[in-house]
Structure of Molybdenum cofactor synthesis domain-containing protein:
Amino acid sequence: MSEIITAGILVIGDEILSGRTKDANIGFIAEYLTNIGIDLREVRVVADDEAAIVEALDALRHRYTYVFSTGGIGPTHDDITADAVAKAFGVGIDHHPEVVARFRERFSEAELNEARLRMARIPDGAELIQSATILAPGFKIGNVIVLAGVPSIMQAMMDIVAPKLKSGVRMLSESIRANAREGDIGGPLRALAKAHPDAIIGSYPFLDEDKKPNTYLVVRSRDPDKLRDAVEGVKQMLGALQAPQ
Amino acid sequence: MSEIITAGILVIGDEILSGRTKDANIGFIAEYLTNIGIDLREVRVVADDEAAIVEALDALRHRYTYVFSTGGIGPTHDDITADAVAKAFGVGIDHHPEVVARFRERFSEAELNEARLRMARIPDGAELIQSATILAPGFKIGNVIVLAGVPSIMQAMMDIVAPKLKSGVRMLSESIRANAREGDIGGPLRALAKAHPDAIIGSYPFLDEDKKPNTYLVVRSRDPDKLRDAVEGVKQMLGALQAPQ
């Protein structure tokens, strides 16, 4: 139960790098993984380029428990994720009979052209991620989970694959509004972080309702007792700051 | 003039990886770079961890013309970007006299504590990125540009640093609404992409006003003639598809 499960995300797509499309998947997956006790450690965004995809995939899959990729599994020439994944794993890739059979139910003979059949190309040995509402399936091969780039489809795929993943001890967190400027609490906060090595204390400045600089302190730990101790420490520190001096 | 200028982005912050904060900087910088003729090739997001920052920074700065980092330059213990950058470049880091002098004008003696002075720590040899409205400066060292994580400040810093960057021949692009499903045009589109190797043709499915599957085709090239040729090709292809058969 005390195993730490880690993950990386690989976002594939020229449209993100050109700024044409604003990515919404990183934030969604990040929050999702936190909620199921998986630590997201790294994200990479690369172009629709086989060498770049293979390199990033290999770096991430050897380093983390899971890798989630998004994008590049559609029917057009710029959708090369499945081929890149097969290449990274050194396995073959072909039209998956189960996917082709489903496509035959859905599409007429004229519609089932080479482009659409491309979405049925799945690396050998991969497990499909599909449902009645998902047209082109995602898949899982080894520790790599290949998801669609369209947010609604990606999210449906996450719901299918998540129950099958190993999950770790969930990271607990508590957010405390400091009502103080970050620069005023940085010193005591550093001492506090040192005194609570089993908790992670993050400091996030923001402008409050009155446009005044304010700070959220976020305390995180897998151990509820250590979380409570650190939160208590933060509250005492803030109380001491606000007391008349 | 024909030099290709490339870039990587390094986003630094536990809050992005935990999903607590949704990144808005990648999309902004991506669009900004496209507009000034710099090709964004890769993005990485890493935790507030010195080893992770140094490793990603070294990978990106040796590969691309420029690296833009965001986050981790505030006054608290989890702000370690400047130190990590100094370490990656193998240079010292100290309180920058010009920044300290500006802080003395802005802060009282009591306010100018160790935490705030931390924001004046700049790697040796770096050039400051600052203005009257920016409290803690960003900096540029070698080909690495270190920006704030708060979007409004990051954006002000981009405006200061951008005019000093080498810029390449701008990537031109034209977006064409296909009024067709991606699966119906994938075949001819692949042939078209092959016939126009100096243009990049991207295909992006979306649901239109009537909730019908539709597709945007985005053609990109640095050469206006080649862009026009490829766009003409796309329009002819779409016209042929829509003609009665």
Notes: Chain B touches chain A through 66 residues (CB under 8 Å).
